[in-house]
Every structure is written in structure tokens, then in C-alpha cells.
Amino acid sequence: MPKTLRLILGDQLNLAHSWFKDVDPEMTYLILEMRQETDYVAHHIQKVTAYFLSMRNFSDQLVHHGHQVLYYQLDQDQNEQDLEKMISKVVQMYSFEQFEYQLPDEYRLDQQLKSISSNLGIPTRGVGTEHFLTERGYLQDFFKGKKTFLMETFYRQMRKDFDILMEGKQPIQEKWNFDHENRSALKDKRLLRKPKLHPKSVMSMVEMIEKAGVKTIGTIDVEAFNWPTSRYESLEVLEYFCENLLIHFGDYQDAMTTWDPFLFHSRLSFAMNSKMLSPLEVVQKVESHWKENQDQIGISQVEGFIRQIIGWREYMRGIYWAKMPEFAELNFFGHDRKLPDWFWTGKTKMKCLSHSITQSLDQAYAHHIQRLMVTGNFMLLAGINPDEVDEWYLGIYIDAIEWVEITNTRGMSQFADGGIVGTKPYVSSANYIKKQGNYCGQCAYDSNKKTGEGACPFNSLYWHFYDRNRSKLEKNPRIGMAYRTLDKMKDRADILQQAEKYLEEIENL
After folding, report:
1. CATH fold for the domain made of 4-127
2. Are strands 27-32 and 4-8 parallel, antiparallel or unpaired?
3. Measuring CA to CA, which residue among 456, 450, 479, 478 is closest to residue 467?
4. All CATH 3.40.50.620 domain ranges in the chain, comma separated
5. Which of 89, 252, 404, 427 is the most exposed place for a label (fewest CB within 10 A)?
6. Minimal CA–CA distance to 263: which of 372, 324, 163, 185?
7. For the chain, where do the domains classified as CATH 1.25.40.80 start and end?
């Protein structure tokens, strides 16, 4: 076996990968903390900390099992802070005869590693990450010849292929999807359970990041950092979710409240996106727990969770590899407005936005409805440039990696793709936000008013969005009702004028 260098990226922390089955003295694993990766957007300080800590824990596990690891911390003098420079340097320094890497999940890194490999002057090989249920090109092949890529069709195929919630060839309880049962607002705070936490001091890590001059956003408790940063901790969070949170997950997965940032959500997205946990082991664990506790946990709770992972998560990755790099440039509505400065501070009088943004800055987390129907909804209604939308979401959330971020934001949230991901824009007035949460009762704006002093901005911006995009949306069969309603409004002119006023004063909302 030739003397081989194997690269492990920060989101490839998969101890179950076949690479690690046997210990080979000719194999050395390279793990790098780099400014290249901290600086392409301003990331949340908790995100940078979580990745570096998880990478160090992963390296320790490899060493513990007898593998040889070259680990470069961010502040080491020998660290060139660039992937190409470091690979070339290490190959030459240690006279490696072969280079191998796991296929990256981001297009920019995929292109960079192809370039690096072609210039190294030694044999190179890329292998799969052995994480996802499908290969990169599966979705594109699955929908070959189709104009739309319907997630539900893909999701059902995943259920069949991996025998998840199935009885033979049919879905358990004769239904594929219980989404209509997953939309309850939380009325009783006594149902809430605290999440599984792993408090640890990260003061030295944060000091290193700050001393290096890395630009970050958000806040962090350096004495009680609570995200799982090892496979052991991640498995504990999974177990806790099954035992304590799954029972209400489906009912309240779309609920929004000021009472608690996490509700019944699992907090497993970072663990999965860094590959400390695999999606298949997560859904199999959840399904197994449900089967053992069907007298207490309804199927709508577990199906809603599993759909997010083997449905949306896997589907979004397939969209990414089917449509990149062009997807990153799509701007169906031609939106070009600057993101308001208060998206970086949370200082707005709109309670739903103030709370969701402040929570994101404090926790590096917001659940999918806060992202889609509060922050994303406002960005779309206000006509924010999708480039700025992508940068904000990619930086602020601990689980944000481009393959899952950009398909959700530029696709599902902003409809900048013109309908590749979603069949219509996900927009709403204040009615939806009021129905799903308790924000409106604490807001400076009146959710029932469309015009006049104190009218909720969402109400007039909603109709302004449809009015200005009529030529692009009117023929969409799922939107016709909105235009019929708009045309019948006696106060239409006043509503549109109110929206214009708010857009002019957007920094002061």
C-alpha cells in the first residue's frame, strides 16, 4: 500500500466510515482548522466553536483507535489557512505517495479539491462519505424527464427503499403523510421539556478564535456551551429526544412561542450535518422507539420527524447537486433590496422578527417555521436580494452548510428558483403567524390592521408582494384565489400605499 494522506473535512466526522475499519500504518489522516472556512461568510461564534471542538474530539477518537492523524489548529504557525496550500505542503513534507478525500457536500469545495488533485502530481481518489441514503445524482435520475421534482414522490420512494414505517409495500396505518396533524399552536407551557444539554467550558477555544481575528456574529456562553460535539453526546441527544420530546414533536413542530427556543425539536441537525450521526440510524432509532411505545406516541409524531430527514433533508441535497452551480445565481423576482441592519441585531418593533432574530443570535438556532414563515417570509415580502438572504442564513445557524441552506432559502423560502423546490411562494400575512404562536399579543403592531397607524407590516407587504409580481404568479394554479381577493378589495390602493411607506422606512420598522 502506498503511503497515503487522507483528508477529513470539518463536516465529515463519521466514525462509522469504512476508512476507519482497519488501522494501517501507511495511512495518515489530515484535519484542518482554516481561515478559508471561517471567513467565506461571517459565521456564528457558536458554529465555529462547535465545528472546531467536534473536529478535535473526532481526531482524539481516531488517535485513540490507533490511527495516525495530522491535526492543524487555527493558531498554529505552520497553518497556511488554505486547503490547497496545506495539502501541497503536507504531501511534500511527509513524502506522501497518494492522496484521498471524501467527496465534499459543497460545490465550491468539490471544485477546489478537483483542482488540487489535478495539480498534486501523485495519484488521487475521491470516495463517498457513506452518510446519505442516496448518491449525489440520485434525485436527478429519479425525476429524469420531469419538469417538477415533487418531494412527496421522492419521500415515498425512500420509505419503500429503506423499509421505514412500512407494512410490506404499504405505509403503516395506510397513510403516507400526516402533515395536516402537525400544525398545532402550543397553548400549554406545562408540556415543555428542557433539551438535553452538555455544558462545557469553551473559553480557550473562543479566545483563540477572537485572537486570530475571525469575524463572527452572535453570542456564546463560554462557561456552558451546550451543543453536542462528539458522537457520544450526539447519541445522548437522540436518546433524550426519543424518551422525552418525540411524544409531542409532530403536534407542535410548526408552533412558535416566546416560552422556549427549542420546544420539542431534536437539536440533532448539527450532529447530522457534521456526520457524527447518520440519517438512517436516527430514523431507525426513532421508528424503533415508536414501535415500542405506540400506546403513548401517535404515528403523526414520528412520521412528521422522519419526513424531515429522509424527505426534505435528502431531497434538498439532491436538488443541490442537480442544479448547482446555476442555482446559486437564481433570482426569479429580481429582488435587490438590502437586508435591514436589524437582522444583525434583532432591534425591530415587530415581535415575531425581534424574537426569532434575537434567538438566532443567542442560540445559533431557530426551528424551520421561524426560518420559513417569520424571517424568510419577511425577506421575500420585502424583496430582499437572495444573495444577502443566503449570506445571513448560512452564517447565523449552527446547522447551515450550503447544500442544505441554499436549497431551503433561495429555493423553498425565497422562491428565487421560480418553482424548482416549491410549487408556490411561502408567504403569509399576520394571520398565519398569529395562529401558530404568541408573538402578536406582545407586539407594537396590530396584527388585525392592514393600514393606518400601528398596522402590522406583514399585512400590507403580503398584498404588495402579489401585486408587484402579478405577471410572474397570476397563472400559478395555487395562487389564483389571492388575485381574485386582491381585485375585490375596496381598500387596495390604501394597502399598497401602506406597504410602500413601510418599504421606504424598512430600517425603522
Report:
1. Rossmann fold (3.40.50)
2. parallel
3. 479
4. 4-127
5. 89
6. 185
7. 138-323
Q: What is the dihedral of CA 487, 492, 497, 501, to 10 degrees?
A: -100
Region 385-412: what's the mean pLDDT?
96
Task: Tally the residues of the chain.
Answer: 509
Cβ–Cβ under 8 Å, residues 425 and 431: no
Please tell me whether the overall predicted TM-score, pTM, comes out greater than 0.85 for this model: yes
* CB contact at 8 A, 114 and 106: no
The grid coordinates listed for 489 are 378589495
Give domain 138-323's CATH architecture: Alpha Horseshoe (1.25)
Half-sphere exposure at residue 98, Cβ-oriented, CA atoms within 13 angstroms: 12
Cell readout for 382 is 420585502
Going 44 to 237 to 367 to 426, the CA torsion angle's sign is positive
Q: How many CB atoms lie within 10 A of CB 73?
A: 16
Q: Which stretches within 407-491 are classed as H helix?
A: 430-436, 457-468, 470-473, 480-488
Q: For the segment 113-133, what is each residue's pLDDT rounded down to a tens digit?
A: 999 999 999 999 999 999 999
Higher-pLDDT residue of 220, 478: 220
- The closest of 408, 394, 253 to 317, measured between CA atoms, is 408
Q: Please give the pLDDT value at position 180.
A: 78
**Among residues 311, 327, 439, 430, which one has the least CA distance to residue 386?**
327
What integer best gives the mean pLDDT of the chain?
95
Answer yes or no: are the C-beta atoms of 117 and 126 closer than 8 Å.
yes
State the DSSP code for 130.
S
Q: Kindly state the average pLDDT of the residues 326-338.
A: 97
CA dihedral 173, 174, 179, 183 (to 10 degrees): -40
Question: Which amino acid, residue 239?
Answer: E
Q: What is the dihedral of CA 132, 372, 51, 101, to 10 degrees?
A: 30
Percent of the chain whose pLDDT exceeds 70 = 100
How do beta strands 170-171 and 68-72 pair?
unpaired
**What's domain 341-508's superfamily in CATH?**
DNA Cyclobutane Dipyrimidine Photolyase, subunit A, domain 3 (1.10.579.10)
Confidence of residue 178 (pLDDT cuts 50, 70, 90): confident
Enumerate residues 6+ apart whose C-beta is below 8 A from 303.
Answer: 165, 177, 178, 250
